[in-house]
Amino acid sequence: QVQVVESGGGSVQAGGSLKLSCQASGYTYGSACMGWFRQAPGKEREGVARIYSVGANSYYARSVRGRFTISQGNAKNTVYLQMNSLTPEDSAMYYCAFGHARSCRLDPVDFSYWGQGTQVTVSS
Asked: Is residue 101 pLDDT above 90, yes or no?
């Protein structure tokens, strides 16, 4: 059974930074599509960034490009999201997700395993 756990959320002032961490235990496949999504109250879940474990190919939503960086950890099935220059519009519940990499798009349908989320709040 795969269990995805996020950590690192919190409250920060605009312009600040946070780093989210995520690990998927029990994921035994050789490759993975790893992604971060977010959902603010009253809004749909949106993709933030994703990375493919083989070759570290990454892709970002336009709203975070240049400010956020997704990366793999040295530990297997670990992924990070470094968030810089945060704005109040970045406030949301952030979810980490893993997929089998048959298709690795920034689309929830490509991800099979989801964490419970970690809250990020950015104040102005």
From this structure: no
Backbone phi, then psi, for 76, in 5-degree steps? -60, 140
- Exposure class string for 26-61: b at 16+ Cβ within 10 A, else e: ebeeeebbbbbbbeeeeeeeebbbbbbbeeeebebb
Nearest alpha carbon to residue 7 among 100, 104, 78: 78
Give the residue among 67, 71, 77 at the shortest CA–CA distance from 26: 77
pLDDT at 28 over 90: no
Residue 91's nearest CA partner among 5, 16, 7 is 16
- Please name the residue that has the structure tokens 């605009």: 14
DSSP letters for 21-47: EEEEET--SS--EEEEEEE-TTS--EE
How much helix, strand and coil, in percent to the nearest 5, is found in the chain? Answer: 5, 50, 45
Confidence of residue 112 (pLDDT cuts 50, 70, 90): very high
In 10 A of CB 121, how many CB atoms? 15
